Amino acid sequence: MKPVPHATSLRRAPVQRRSAERLTRILDACADLLDEVGYDALSTRAVAERAGVPIGSVYRFFGNKRQMVDALAQRNLERYSERITQRLREADDGGWREAMDAVLDEYLEMKRTAPGFSLVDFGNQIPVGARQAEPNHRVADRLTELLSGYLDREPDDDLRRVFLIAVETADTLVHLAFRVAPEGDRKIIEEAREMLRAYLARVLD
Prior knowledge:
Helix content: over 70%
Strand content: under 5%
Oligomer: single chain
Number of helices: 9
Distance between the termini: 39 Å
Structural class: mainly alpha
Low-confidence stretches: 1-8, 126-132
Order of helices and strands: HHHHHHHHH
Radius of gyration: 18 Å
């Protein structure tokens, strides 16, 4: 079964399989409609109709569309983490450079193919909550958790700060690449990759 968001983003966490499947349909519909109409025109009623569920099923999980989109962003982060974990499981122990390629490549692939991701990704375009809950902080925390063992580093504040700086830099440059070209300008992406490697080499070599 596809991962569902962490329970803190929901009014009520799904317990039974049927409920979890309904939540998945709601979030899938939300993602598709974001691509079609954007956030401002998104409505919980339209999501319910697209998902084929009663409007009450949407409100069972979410108080409003902002909570629903935040849950979609959290699901994106879970799927992103799974993709990175799978890449590293298949890696040839190429060190931190291979790990960072996986981090960037999987983000680019989701940006190109995942419904709703170009607008929401991990919540960057739609602020949610306090500073510590900002999307790039979420990503930096998750990368610290995922990669510290692979890199044989302590998952401490120093490593988290390094990842936060790398994530903020990559976020800005990748958004630039996709403003220049619909699939992401490849020259800008490669410049971003080289810049990240140069920065991380000072810390991780």
